[in-house]
Design a protein that fits this description.
Elements (H helix, E strand, L loop, with lengths): L4 E5 L5 H10 L3 E5 L13 E2 L3 H7 L2 E4 L4 H12 L8 E4 L5 H13 L3 E4 L2 E2 L1 H7 L2 E6 L2 H6 L1 H7 E8 L4 H29 L4 H8 L7 H11 L10 H18 L4 H16 L8 H7 L1
Parallel strand pairs: 1-2, 1-4, 2-3, 4-5, 5-6, 8-9
Antiparallel strand pairs: 7-8
């Protein structure tokens, strides 16, 4: 029996290193990116020249794409290939529960398996293969992906069996991350107004109850240094928080914090349309 062939679509900011880790694990990987495959393909991979070619070449296809509409379109194109080899699609993107449920239904109708599997940890986590991967789907299908998942992630969590559940987990995680970034920006700006040094504030916070990934990682490495280069776009964080807020409204759970935080990230996106998400510090400093 031929070895399983893996496809990878989307070789952008996080996709390229994740695809590279699959190759480093000795897996047979074919990749494709609409923005240009040859110059983005990691060493050890093969390349496809279209989504249709990918569907014919790979058994399991990973997607790392910007949003739900793009994932929906690409998944539909794969499912529509008459002589496709692909039987499973694994979506590493952040799309929101609604998109994941809809894609899962459409792929099931086409006789395909869909694994909802967003990741967290940013580009640095993708490069270091330390991402947290949260997945939802059939137990046997997820078990079959053990080698691939462990190649790209330091921690793998099966959070459910239905598409959409992993997206819900990812959205609540990103909401907490976004809230910590906003709150830490406001707090350190307050401290600076009283003459407190950034390094001193961070040293105290990181040994006190106010610590978070913002104080431990983003602020000392990206904000105190003035580089603002965490590798995750402000526009994407704004999208994720808006998705969370919409889902909270639908669920009828408390939304007072979500409403405020969503507005702050919308403002950051508008002020820094091409900026890193750490730019929220500058946005709040200016407002």
């Amino acid at each position: 029996m031929a070895a399983t062939a893996y496809g990878f679509i989307g070789l952008g900011n996080m996709g390229n290193p994740m695809c590279g880790h699959l190759c480093d694990a000795g897996l047979n990987v074919v990749c494709y990116d609409a923005a240009g495959t040859a110059e983005r393909a990691p060493e050890g991979s093969e390349t496809a020249n279209s989504i249709e070619a990918m569907a014919v070449a790979a058994d399991t296809i990973f997607l790392s794409l910007p949003d739900g509409p793009v994932v929906t379109q690409v998944a539909g194109e794969i499912a529509g290939v008459a002589d496709r080899r692909a039987t499973t699609i694994v979506d590493l993107s952040t799309t929101g529960p609604d998109a994941a449920v809809a894609v899962g239904v459409s792929l099931a109708a086409a006789g395909m398996v869909f694994i909802d599997a967003p990741v967290s940890g940013g580009r640095s986590g993708a490069v270091a293969a330390t991402l947290a991967l949260m997945c939802a789907g059939p137990d046997d299908a997820i078990a079959d992906l053990d080698t691939a998942f462990n190649a790209i992630a330091g921690n793998v969590f099966q959070v459910g069996k239905k598409p959409g559940q992993a997206q819900a987990m990812k959205l609540l995680n990103n909401f907490l991350s976004a809230t910590a970034m906003a709150a830490t920006s406001e707090a350190t700006l307050f401290g600076a107004s009283h003459g407190l040094d950034m390094d001193t504030m961070l040293a105290v916070l990181n040994t006190s109850s106010g610590r978070s990934t913002a104080t431990e990682d983003k602020f000392p490495k990206r904000i105190a240094t003035g580089t603002f280069d965490a590798g995750f776009a402000a526009a994407l964080m704004s999208k994720d928080v808006s998705l969370y807020r919409d889902q909270v409204a639908r669920a009828g759970t408390p939304d007072s914090v979500a409403d405020v935080v969503s507005g702050l990230w919308r403002g950051t996106r508008e002020a820094f349309p091409d900026g890193d998400f750490t730019e929220i510090y500058r946005y709040l400093a200016d407002n």
